[in-house]
Records
---
Amino acid sequence: MDHREPVFLRVFGVDIWWNDHVTLTWALKLFYVDSCLYLLILGLARTSILCFYLRLFPYERFCRLCYALLTIVATTTVLFIVLAMTQCVPISYNWEGWKGDFGPVKCLNLNLLSWSTSAIGIALDTTILIIPLPLVVKVKSTLRRKLYIISMFSLGIMTVISSSIRLRYNIMYGDSINITWDYVDLMIWTGVEVSTSVAVTSLPSIRLMLHRLFPGVFGRIFAFGGHVEQDRERYLKSEAQNLDVEGLSAKGITRQKADPNRSGRGYEDGNSTSSNRSESHSSQHNEYPFQVSKYTTAIDRRQHNHSHY
């Protein structure tokens, strides 16, 4: 038999007793490998979406939520892949057990494993789909552009729908004696679920491709990235300024508005002397050895230049 032939199309959709032994064994071996790849692809798709969220929205609470979800996704993905690989011991029973004379074997409850995987997957997909919506709505943009942005995220609904429909066909999984016939619908909806998951993760790259190929058509509609980068810059600048205010307040230094006649020269320091300002500047670096962004360096440079006046 030529292994390059589409054995799935030759085996599945036909009663098991109408398949020859060699083709059936090869198809079940591929089915075993695909069941592990299915879990891996879904886990990577969820990870990709969460990493995309982290790039778009730098807000502290949202990032913490994304990191928590990343931990859950990684843990459940590894766990379910290990369980799928060791669902029956010896492993060769997964594609040779249909012969009926394999010998002693230990198997997990495959039906329960399938239901658990699907239920946790639906819960994670729904959570990942919902968490960015409040931030997207708050983005300063036109209503039309917001609708396009939301519709881009809404494609993830298809993943949840296909996963929910797939639950219906989990009933026969692990309990069928005619697997090449009873698993057909389950395999179809599994393919739909994986395809939509990959499509959702590819949307950001598709957006950039369309923007480059057709800038006149898709430039305004898909200009979401520019607004997000501006929001990120404003957020990082605000964080740097807040850090600077906290450092000055801890040393008893008041920070007033800059003199319009001295634009760009820094802030007035109230009653503090030049030596106190130098001490405050050095102690601030000791207390905050890290830099939030490039704006922290700019603020420190202005204060250092002002200490010589």
---
Amino acid sequence: SDNMAAPGRHACQFLRTHLEQLWCYRRKASSVQKNALASAEVLAIPRKKTWSKEAVLEALALTVTKDPTSYAYQFQDDPYLSPQNSAEFKLYSLSQESGRSAAKYFVNTFPKFFTKDFAEPHIPCLMPESVAAETEEVSEEALRERVKLRKVTAAVTSYDQLLQAGVAVSKETTQELLDLLCFYGDRDPVPEDADPSAEGPKTRKPNLRQVLGLKLSWKEDNNAERIFHLLPEKDTRSYSALIRGMVKHGATAKAFGLYTDLLNNRLVADVHTFNSLISAAPDVREKYNERWDLIADLLKQMSQQKVQPNLQTFNAVLKALKHCGHLARPHALQTLSEMRALGIAPSLASYYHLLAVFYKQSSSGQGNADILQEVMAELKGRSLECQDPDDVHFFSHAMRICLDNKDLELGYSIQSLVEVGDNWRLLGDSYRQSIYYGRFFNLLCMMEHVDAVLKWYRRLIPSLYYPKPQGVRDLLQALDTDNRLDVLPTVWKDMRSLGHDNKADLVEELLTLMARDPQPPEVQESFAKCALDIKGVLDGDRGRLGPEWSTSSLSSITRLLLRANRSQQAWDVLQLFKSKNRVPPSRSEGLLEDFLSVCRSETIPQRAVELVQFSATFCLPATHQLATSALADFDLTDEQRAILTGLQTSAEPCD
């Protein structure tokens, strides 16, 4: 009976198991169905997405990382024109811009040959510009056309012709002409390639007016003022244009007088007018408290006239506070708090002006770094956009604070922010980028481990940064500190490519580091090859005049060749002391003794005799000891022994 019951139990167990599985499946199916119904209820078909014509290119660009070994994008078409140093970078950039200007000249001079637009999407700069006026008759349409083409002198002439003809010019056209005159200071616009700022930074210390960006170029009773006074009805826009033009071109006192006239006529200034007046406040007041009182009075008038401030308003206040001395710090923090209360997010220029208020190069301290840390905590991970012309000053100024405070961690946080999205564009032009990366690299060399320094060195050079002599000197000091002198030959190759092989002090420092201490044979051999390459540069073997030979460079190269067992080449370099009219150091720092040891190991008695004669030629104190050692250690002929004996007895220090 037990045998018969067993199959029954197995059958029941089998049936129970399958029923449980079926129940589980049903529960799962029911759950899936419920979820499907729930998802079907909330499913929303998205609207059609319209992509820009550059969307595919932008998506592809995101898949490619930057190659640190490549040069800047504008130089990749022709490898021959890849700049090797900052001088070539500037030269090739100017050459490229000159070629672009020449091409633009031909396109605009002969527009009939450039009517076909091949670019997709359309690229306006590749097509001819309308630079010549088409309407010749005296009419308001001709005046409008000249204003649109920014022909200042021609527009004024056309306006005067209309007045002489008794033609009434509309208020809108007159206002556009006034805007043009005020913007350019009643002068024809200067071409971009003729901008004097392109000549590079000035070494002369600027005065306050130059610091504030003010130029004394506003002429008394110019066409802008004349046309303004001819207006039958002057409104806020006309006053604003003239006030802003006066401030921009240096007539700040007249601008404030015109603002008083605006108030007397019961008009309300706009926010742009207030921004210009605030930025000019330090130029019309001498004392710090008077400057701040004027700024505060303008802000109070904005509030009374119900003019809503914008980002540029607060940036103008912060910028002006840099010239308010001890009053600047408390009012700067108050200004920043007011910005946040109004829901206006500070831009990089706001933070730049704030740091400039609290940070002075002569009085660096932890408090300044603390302020920068708070700023970086707010900016961390954000993708930034340019909202103010002064935004480009922030990163280089912040990195200077890190360098002066030797704060490596803060420097890394600034570099991380630069690498977010397109924030690198806010570094400014190539000159400002060079300043930023130069300070960052200096900070790395000063505070970071040499392996990290070399990693950043390969990452930054030459794609982002062409180090100046000080940058190379910082790298040499970092290698010396961490005893990584084996990298020096590679640094020398980079010095040659960067154009620093003609800097005598750098070459001597490099040779001194290589010659200071003995190294393993393989390193010593690479040092010897490097020394011979340096010798070729000093000899000018490539047709280029190199730095002059010095006693230090001759001694170092000789020592390096001796340590690599290149005695003949070392002897040839030693003879350059005579041909180059250089006197070996009085002690020779053991150089001649080392040379005598090599002669002993290679059993070259004649070379030992010549070495003692060489020492005697310069009346070196080591002559007597060298002669004594040579007499004792070498198997000499009678003639050689006689020479050495004579030198030994006559070796006296010369005056």
---
Amino acid sequence: MPVCDHQLSLQIDSQLSNTTLVAMAVRGVCAMTTLSPVEINRLELCLVEIVNNAIEHAYGNEPGHPVEVCIGLDKTTMNISVSDWGASIPGNVIKDQEPEEINPDHPESWLCSGRGLHIVNKLMDTVDYDTTEEGKNIFTMSKALRH
């Protein structure tokens, strides 16, 4: 993560109920920016989506595992990283693919799964994913701040 003027780091247990803490934290940091309310809502959505993915997919909804969130802020950019030590995202999934069409006549097409990464890729300015040799998965994303 780049060097930032302000940085907030927190670690939560891998329980979906803890995403509220992450959402409130990012809103607090966003209050220090020029982001509009719509942009703040979108940024919160993206962060919660990635934290949910770590909990649901990396850890299989099993509590007791760490999820680290770092939010960095400088004059021009907000940088966010979400880290876990669970199952990594397969390469074919991380690439931005168009989600399947939703067909109102076919309820099986209504499933939300698989749309989150596409949304994050569309709403954030940069997105990256890496797994270290030690098995740490790091999802990073950034949003430019308007002036």
---
Amino acid sequence: MVQFSGEHLTENLFLLITTIVSLAAWVIAFGALCAMRAVGASWWVMIFNLLLVVGIIVLILTNTFSQYRLVVLAFLAVSISYVTEQLSFAIALTAGNDNSYYGYGNLRAPAGAYAAGYIILIIIEILWVFVFGSEPNSYLGQFGHLGGLNSVQQQPHHGTTAGAGAAAGVGAAAGGNVVSHDAPIEMTQEKTAYDGAVSPQSPTMTHPSMATSPVLEYSERVEALHEYRANPEDPSELSFDRGDILEIVDRRGNWWQARKTDGTTGIIPSNYFA
């Protein structure tokens, strides 16, 4: 279930200020449009921008923005095009005292407020394009980093795997804390990183009955957007730092089968990666 947390927004000063200013700019433009008694496509542009700003805020509060970043950028491009057209219309209305040609009468004052609201909004949207469109580890991309995740939020609740329990039992019997990252992983319903697949075995532990098991191919590289510490009760999870590059098998499910640069394999939460 998606959980809302205001910390994701309040702890990032850039996101907090830009979202508040964008909402204020929209309110100014909305009030001016009502005063102008306009009809037609101007209202569609107004509603479109409201849905866009509210949608961005919701994605930030639920910490799911990274999963829909490209969609947001596409809608921002559409919005900038719409707002630019509306600015041309509003500036034309403010050019003189007699605007009867446009069918609205003398609307110089509300048209000026309409243009001012959209000018502020388009500036914010252009800033968002630069920040959201940049890589997370770049200078501009760091402004959109969603911090404020506490240790409880970073550790999703899920069941442990059968393979992990077996590995822990063997380690305890041997009198040491042994964690096998290459042991077969039987995914539960919540960990569907790679259903039906088995991690490759080390040469010394290969069993004849497992000789025909498929070998996983880590064909894609992903970059960590946030730091994550594995659940100590589940040896199948991997810990990583923000900016780490990991290799994954594919993007299916909420948990991905991954391999770190040091060769350690395990599973990682998908919402922590671009």
